[in-house]
């Protein structure tokens, strides 16, 4: 192996090892580590420690119903989408250490369509992706989405019962968490005309309405589907879609926004300080007016629609949110407050594009090195007979020294360069093989890190 080839191979090995470590691990640490818990400014002296809540929307793990794929193609898509969320959730837990995690529904893509056996298999897959690393310090709440149970009059009763049985209740109140009450409300069943389906949701809203005076803590409402707002209401600068407003579409088992009467019903009876929703897969921040005919400390409720956690959800960059709850302090008369920070995960398609660009650049560099190394210089030579006619001796001389411009002596041939295509191709294969035997184990080690540790 030539000196140039050795240097190029060594440099490319180091480059690919560093590239894979950064692309598969480093970028996740950097993005999640760079998005910190929002804090109160200025902080009240001697105020109790705040409660931290991570909010994740629409993990919607890919399955047969996502792209109508089967076989190896489906398994490939599942692998790359699963490992992205696995890595992101792993670092979210280890770096941020939230005390509570709330999933805003759509845990699976085809959850409402599966039979019990298929659903159980997919749910185990979901749980393996979102494994709780610190169960003694972290409470996790899974809400239902329309992909899990349906919506309104098309709620799949068997899927709803299965969710209650295997996952947990779809309506829940976390009382006095950081000085607030968190209301996890199943608005999917709330909009059903079937009393059997909507009973639990309506009962919870009525109970909350009755407790407005007896439980004066500020409320935070969590719903899978966003609330109704005026058409083309601006969502804010963090929205990635070309349309900077929430669409208003209705189709098979989905609705982009709650009905107007549902929205008014919830705002008047729950009177939330803030609303957190998912379903749209993109970010949106709007304000909803609360019933002006009733006294309230606040006249509006801010709604935060959280982007999807997966990278194959129709928006370029996946995201989540961090919520900090300050309980206030009677000693200082500080009131409970909440603070929200949107966080964005690595741009996975951008990582893959950079890998492809690096591979193309590697091929060009390897081809250039091998092309240069496959040229041979044949110096000037003279043939003479010595003894017999069958014996010839080749006398090598350098044609480069013939700078006089005079013709070479009789029988002497001019020196020349020659190129070996086969030699160039073999060198390329050897270098790429050397890179492959280093790069592939590095990539496998990066992936196994999130399955073993």
TrEMBL record:
InterPro entries: Calcineurin-like_PHP, Metallo-depent_PP-like, PGAP5/Cdc1/Ted1. GO terms for biological process: GPI anchor biosynthetic process. It is found in: Membrane. GO terms for molecular function: hydrolase activity. It is a multi-pass membrane protein. Residues 52-282 form the Calcineurin-like phosphoesterase domain. GO terms for cellular component: endoplasmic reticulum; membrane. Keywords: Membrane, Transmembrane, Transmembrane helix. It comes from the Eukaryota. Pfam families: Metallophos (PF00149). The chain crosses the membrane at residues 12-30, 352-371, 430-452. This is Calcineurin-like phosphoesterase domain-containing protein. It comes from Coemansia interrupta.
């Amino acid at each position: 192996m030539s000196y140039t080839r050795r240097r190029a191979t060594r440099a490319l090995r180091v480059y690919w090892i560093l590239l894979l470590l950064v692309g598969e691990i480093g970028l996740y640490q950097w993005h999640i580590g760079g998005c910190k818990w929002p804090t109160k400014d200025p902080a009240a002296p001697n105020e109790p420690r705040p409660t931290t809540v991570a909010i994740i929307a629409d993990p919607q793990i890919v399955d047969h119903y996502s792209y109508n794929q089967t076989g190896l193609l489906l398994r490939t898509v599942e692998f790359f989408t699963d490992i992205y969320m696995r890595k992101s959730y792993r670092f979210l837990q280890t770096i941020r250490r939230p005390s509570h995690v709330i999933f805003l529904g759509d845990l699976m893509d085809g959850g409402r369509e599966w039979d019990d056996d298929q659903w159980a298999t997919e749910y185990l897959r979901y749980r393996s992706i979102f494994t709780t690393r610190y169960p003694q310090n972290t409470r996790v709440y899974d809400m239902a989405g329309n992909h899990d149970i349906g919506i309104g009059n098309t709620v799949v009763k068997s899927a709803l019962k299965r969710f209650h049985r295997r996952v947990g209740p779809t309506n829940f109140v976390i009382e006095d968490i950081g000085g607030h009450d968190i209301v996890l409300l199943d608005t999917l069943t709330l909009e059903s005309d079937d009393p059997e389906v909507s009973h639990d949701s309506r009962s919870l809203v009525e109970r909350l309405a009755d407790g407005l005076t007896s439980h004066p803590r500020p409320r935070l409402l969590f719903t899978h589907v966003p609330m109704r707002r005026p058409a083309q209401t601006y969502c804010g600068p963090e929205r990635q879609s070309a349309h900077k407003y929430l669409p208003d579409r209705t189709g098979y088992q989905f609705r982009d926004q709650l009905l107007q009467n549902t929205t008014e019903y919830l705002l008047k009876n729950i009177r939330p300080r803030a609303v957190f929703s998912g379903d749209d897969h993109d970010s949106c921040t709007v304000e909803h007016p609360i019933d002006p005919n009733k006294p309230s400390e606040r006249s509006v409720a801010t709604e935060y629609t959280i982007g999807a956690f997966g990278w194959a959800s129709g928006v370029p960059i996946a995201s989540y949110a961090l919520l900090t709850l300050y309980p206030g302090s009677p000693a200082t008369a500080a009131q409970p407050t909440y603070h929200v920070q949107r966080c964005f995960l690595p741009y996975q398609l951008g990582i893959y594009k950079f890998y492809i660009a690096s591979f193309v650049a590697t091929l060009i560099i390897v081809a250039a090195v091998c092309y240069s190394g496959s040229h041979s210089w044949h110096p000037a030579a003279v043939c003479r007979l010595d003894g017999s006619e069958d014996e010839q001796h080749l006398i090598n001389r350098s044609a480069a020294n013939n700078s006089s411009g005079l013709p070479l002596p009789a029988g002497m041939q001019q020196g020349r360069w020659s190129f070996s295509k086969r030699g160039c191709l073999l060198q390329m294969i050897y270098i790429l093989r050397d890179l492959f035997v280093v790069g592939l184990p590095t990539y496998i080690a990066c992936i196994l890190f999130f399955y073993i540790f």
